[in-house]
Design a protein that fits this description.
By secondary structure, the protein is mostly helical. Helices cover about 70% and strands about 5% of the residues. Helix 2 packs antiparallel against helix 18 and helix 3 runs parallel beside helix 20. The chain is globular, with a radius of gyration of 26 Å.
Length: about 475
């Protein structure tokens, strides 16, 4: 009988094939994005597409070497790899090269290397190692603190490099925790916080707090429809807000009337909380705490927003429709949408994109590579590309679910969520539904660091999957 642990027989060649298709499609589109009629050879290493071919060749070698390494290596050295990458993230702050405002690059000869890209697979290894450790329980406070440290440590040092986009990618690891038993309540509150953040930027403070209070009172009425108790709560809020609004009208002060309204609502919430605790009405206690937290969070949003870089604030305002400047901060997205829309159904044809040829779209070979596909291959081309990516994600989830070890399953889900986050945000920002945070499209965008890091991330999982039956072999 043939051995069941034959490496090459157990490799998931479907995933490898998808990887190769995406990599070489990316190469052809990089050629289209920076096409130079004076240097028509796609092998010209003085151009980006020639350099990308070198990166692709190196990536294939890296992938092959990873497949030859025993899987125990990744388990045993997970923390060491993680610690080494964190060290590089710290080191680049002192000796790194600054490019586009981010001090995130090591310059080695004529090449540059971005350690933040390699932090993704290192964090995935460390997280898988910890979550699969003997006796691990996700619900413990100690476990949650250590998980937060594993995820946030590299994100923190990347933020110090002024690379917010790369740092945000690390929050995708939270999705892995839900597969491992994290309560959906956390996802609910996370979504609520994101919604409040957007509403706090779009709506005035007073209007938002009126909406929050109305929703809170409606929920209280639904949960406990006894009119006598609800009437007391309504009276408490009405009197509290009325008193503070009266003070705001009479007493000369630098504060606006909306500030007194918020103060009155918070005072009413505190009184309601005390009343609910004394009456032992659990539903009222919970809703009042959520309302109070929502109001306080919405107040803090503007303060947090002011701490962002000016260009980040403008991009968020552009996305939310608060301001519009198609010749300024919105230029990238505006030109990208024009390029994609001009492709129509079938596209203009390979190397025939006018937006591409005349350099209307900045960063078209890296962050905005998707608009090249949209202009030259149209709706059909973009649909095929999206289908390829979605097929890869579904395949990764399928592979993760069939793993026989917790380490491999957790790492597999980490690979899926990281790649999906990049895919979602990158394509979303090119069509104007996501803020421009400058992250590449996996396997597709120009760049050696990103291609190599994604290759390592993926091929480690392919190697783990190929060894899933080793312990059953004779």
């Amino acid at each position: 009988m043939p051995r069941r642990n034959n490496l090459w027989a157990n490799i998931d060649w479907v995933t490898v094939l998808l990887f190769l298709i995406l990599v070489f499609l990316g190469w052809f589109n990089i050629y289209a994005a920076v096409y130079n009629p004076e240097s028509q050879s796609i092998l010209d290493v003085s151009q980006q597409y020639g350099k990308q071919l070198i990166w692709i060749g190196a990536a294939l070698v890296i992938g092959f070497v990873i497949l030859l390494i025993e899987t125990n290596f990744y388990v045993f050295f997970a923390y060491i790899i993680y610690g080494f990458v964190v060290f590089l993230l710290i080191l680049v702050l002192f000796v790194g090269k600054e490019i586009n405002g981010a001090k995130s690059w090591f310059e080695i000869g004529g090449f540059t290397l971005q350690p933040s890209e390699f932090g993704k697979f290192a964090t995935a290894l460390a997280l898988a190692k910890y979550l699969s450790s003997f006796g691990f329980k996700l619900q413990r406070l100690k476990s949650m603190v250590l998980i937060a440290l594993i995820i946030l440590t590299p994100a923190f040092f990347i933020l110090l490099q002024n690379d917010t986009g790369s740092a945000l990618v690390y929050f995708a690891f939270v999705l892995v925790l839900f597969r491992e038993g994290l309560s959906g309540v956390i996802l609910f509150f996370g979504s609520l916080i994101a919604l409040l953040f957007v509403l706090a930027l779009v709506l005035s403070g007073m209007l938002l707090n009126i909406i929050l209070l109305s929703v809170a009172l409606l929920v209280l009425l639904i949960l406990n429809p006894r009119f006598k108790q609800f009437g007391r709560i309504l009276l408490i809020f009405t009197l509290s807000i009325g008193v503070f609004l009266g003070i705001g009208e009479v007493v000369p002060t630098k504060y606006q009337l909306s500030d007194f309204w918020v103060a009155g609502a918070l005072t009413g919430a505190v009184i309601t909380l005390i009343y609910s605790i004394r009456q032992k009405i659990r539903n009222y206690i919970l809703v009042t705490i959520i309302f109070t937290g929502s109001v306080l969070f919405s107040i803090s949003v503007n303060y947090a927003f002011d701490m962002l870089e000016a260009h980040q604030q403008v991009r968020i305002n552009e996305l939310l429709g608060i301001e519009s400047n198609p010749q300024g901060a919105g230029y990238h997205v505006n030109q990208s949408k024009i390029a994609i829309g001009s492709g129509g159904f079938w596209g203009k044809g390979y190397l025939n994109g006018t937006q591409t040829k005349f350099d209307f779209v900045p960063e078209q070979s890296t962050d905005f590579i998707f608009c090249t596909v949209g202009e030259e291959w149209g709706f059909v081309g973009t649909s095929i590309l999206i289908t390829l990516f979605l097929t890869l994600f579904v395949r990764l989830v399928y592979l993760a679910e069939r793993q026989r070890s917790g380490f491999s399953r957790i790492y597999g889900y980490s690979v899926a969520v990281i790649l999906f986050f990049h895919f979602m945000v990158n394509i979303g920002m090119t069509i104007g539904i996501m803020p421009v945070i400058g992250i590449p499209l996996p396997f597709f965008s120009y760049g050696g660091s990103s291609l190599w890091s994604f290759t390592i991330l993926l091929f480690i999982f392919i190697r783990l999957d190929a060894s899933r039956l080793d312990h059953l072999s004779s």
